Amino acid sequence: MLAGVASISLILAGCGSKSSQQKKTITTSTDSELTTVDLSKTTAVGTFNVLNNVDEGLYRLGKDSKVEPGIATSSTISKDGKTYTFNLRKNAKWSNGDPVTAKDFVYSWRRTLNPKTVSQYGYLFSGIKNADKIQNKKAAVSSLGIKADGKYKLTVTLEQRIPYFKLLMGFPVFFPQDSKTVNKYGNDYGTSSKTQVYNGPFTLTKWTGTNLNWTLKKNPNYWDKKAVKLDAVKFSVVKDPSTGLNLFNQKKLDMAQLSATQAKQMGNKKDMVSRKQSSCYYIALNQKNKAFKNLKIRQAMSMIINRKVLANKVVGGGAMDTDSFVSKGLAVSPQNGTDFTKDVTAPASMTYNPTKAKQLFKEGMQEVGLNSLHFTLMNSDSYDQKQLSEYLQSALQKLPGLKVTLNNIPGRVILSRQADHQFTATVANWFADFSDPITFLNILTSDNPSNISQWKNAEYDRLIKASNNDDGSNAQARWDDMVKAQNLALKDQAIIPLYQSGEKWMINSKVKGIVYNTAGANYNFKNAYIK
């Protein structure tokens, strides 16, 4: 997703206290602010992690993204795979006491797809009847292929089979919304904990919209509240990882995420755990800019970056160097079981070659009629991202005549500017919404709101469309479309992939039951507890 990643460390509240109340509370730190809890509008990983715990859709995703019961108690699928019928549980309620009904799903999906909402996630609905037409303002929102057959029966009609449909249903964008609450708060909806209602294991409290602390509190109206063992999960924004490690060493932290330097200093201790993330951090160049329209300049900027040094010595924390946009470990070929990253072919520009990079840059500058180039690189202001920005500045300025100024700003600001294309160059990231390569590849299509670089290629669009439509029912043909699409995008340097993120933690064995998935909303606290 286009958002700064929320690196989480879980800490035991009141560690020295023996009270049972405190033993049922986990405190977490994050390096990024909450921007909104409006599921139709957010793109931030940290927000999706909150939404995954305060709300619930037709399904929940358990360990290894296993589909588990949510609001739906059962479902049937038509023989052609295009019609899903869901039976909803009758004891599901919103935190205000109202029942969760089929109409809440219909309302939520229509609201997200309505062009007036300007959701950056509307494209995920592609394949549901009329979703694309609605996005392109060629059909009424009411024509979307979702229908409430009474209060507790929901029917979804697809235009073609969607192999990952049930995985999508566990992603917060497809969760229900209470129309009464949306209408009540209008533009303020989701801008604070009090301007929202919840139907998940927890409710969000103590978030004003601008403060740096918030709490997930056990929801007494949740249908499966007996399974929820925690009373609360408390969040606070902490941007310096040294603070977390110090608290862990003082035995006030149960889980602390380590920076690259810290991980090296700690060695391979028994309490250290690595967590992979299905992600890609990359540089997006605004290709409306004269210089960045030139392919050789884009290639040179990619080739001057030593990704192994960047991943291992600058980012660390389990990060992996990558020459792919789609993350390693996300999906395997239906034909031979090979990882997607093994089937694609990385272009020469993804390999560190400073001599060739300087040559390409010189040629590109001559082609656009420039003697020098000065631009600002925008990135978030978290500790690790500041370190990354400084490394990129140093690497890029090895190109003759190039000067880079850094602009590290809060997460809520950077997301807004990226969405509005208010940048020349920016470090961005995308985190998989579900375990399929298309979750990455979709965002580089010409009309995707998350295509912040504004790169366009008709053949790429055709391949992605084919994978989502004509070849959707042929697993191998669909796979081949996606492989060709990534090859094309990287050859044309649509973006400059940098690394696939990971996390290294020091973990106290007292914290149990937290479900972590590499794709989609990462954290599920429903069954978490403190031993």
TrEMBL record:
Lineage: Bacteria, Bacillati, Bacillota, Bacilli, Lactobacillales
Topology of this chain in the membrane: Lipid-anchor
Domain Solute-binding protein family: 66-449
UniProt entry keywords in alphabetical sequence: Signal, Transport
Organism of provenance: Lentilactobacillus rapi DSM 19907 = JCM 15042
Gene3D superfamilies, sorted: Dipeptide-binding Protein, Domain 1 (3.90.76.10), Dipeptide-binding Protein, Domain 3 (3.10.105.10), Periplasmic binding protein-like II (3.40.190.10)
Similarity comment: Belongs to the bacterial solute-binding protein 5 family.
Places the protein is found: Cell membrane
Protein name in UniProt: ABC transporter, substrate-binding protein, family 5
InterPro entries, sorted: Peptide/Ni-bd, SBP_5, SBP_5_CS, SBP_5_dom
